[in-house]
Design goal:
Length: 181
C-alpha cells in the first residue's frame, strides 16, 4: 500500500494509536478502499461535534486574550496553495529577530506548515506559534497546540512535536537562527 498524499500533524498522533498501519492511514486520510462506494474514513472520524465547537470557542478565547499581550498577531495569511505563506512566516521571524530584545512577542495563529517528517508528507495549520526576540539577534519560538482539555494526550504531544520539526526544518533551510521549544 502506498503512503498517503498528505497527512495532517494530528494524523501522526492518530496513526500512532494504530502502530502506523498503512491500512488505517489509507482508509482514514485518503479514503481509499478496495470496495467501491464505501466511505471508510467516516468510521475513523471523531464522533463529537460538540467537543469540536467547544474546542474552537476555547481557541478563539485564547486568541482574544493574547491580542492584548503581544506586539503583533498575524492571523491573515497569503494563498494557502502557494509558498507565500512560508515566506510570510520566515519574514515575520526575521522582523522579530531584529526588534528590541525587550519588546513583546509576535504570535502567528493558524499558520500553515508543510514538509516531510520521516516518510510522511505533512500539511497542517498550527494553532499558535509565538516568536520573540533573543539577545543574540536570533528568534525564540514556542509552538503551542491549543486544547480545551485538562489532560495531555500523547497524540496531541506528537502533533505539537510534528509542527516543531516542520518549523525547525524550515528555519534551517533559510539559515535563520532560532531557539525553538
Amino acid at each position: 500500500m502506498s503512503k498517503p498524499n498528505n497527512l495532517p500533524p494530528s494524523g501522526i498522533g492518530e496513526a500512532s494509536k494504530y502502530n502506523f498501519s498503512p491500512w488505517y492511514i489509507k482508509l482514514r486520510f485518503d479514503d481509499k478502499s478496495p470496495i467501491k462506494g464505501r466511505r471508510w474514513n467516516e468510521a475513523t472520524k471523531p464522533l463529537s461535534p460538540i467537543q469540536s465547537r467547544v474546542g474552537n470557542k476555547f481557541e478563539e478565547e485564547i486568541y482574544d486574550y493574547l491580542d492584548n499581550l503581544v506586539y503583533e498577531n498575524v492571523s491573515e495569511w497569503y494563498d494557502w496553495g502557494s509558498g507565500k505563506n512560508r515566506d510570510q512566516f520566515i519574514q515575520k521571524a526575521r522582523e522579530v529577530s531584529n526588534r528590541d530584545k525587550d519588546s513583546m512577542p509576535t504570535i502567528l495563529t493558524q499558520a500553515r506548515l508543510s514538509g516531510t517528517v520521516g516518510e510522511f508528507d505533512i500539511t497542517g495549520d498550527s494553532d499558535l506559534v509565538i516568536l520573540f526576540p533573543k539577545k543574540d539577534n536570533s528568534v525564540g519560538i514556542h509552538v503551542i497546540d491549543i486544547k480545551s482539555s485538562w489532560d495531555e494526550k500523547p497524540s496531541q504531544q506528537l502533533q505539537t512535536a510534528t509542527y516543531t520539526l516542520l518549523v525547525r526544518k524550515m528555519f534551517r533551510e533559510v539559515n535563520l537562527e532560532c531557539d525553538i521549544t
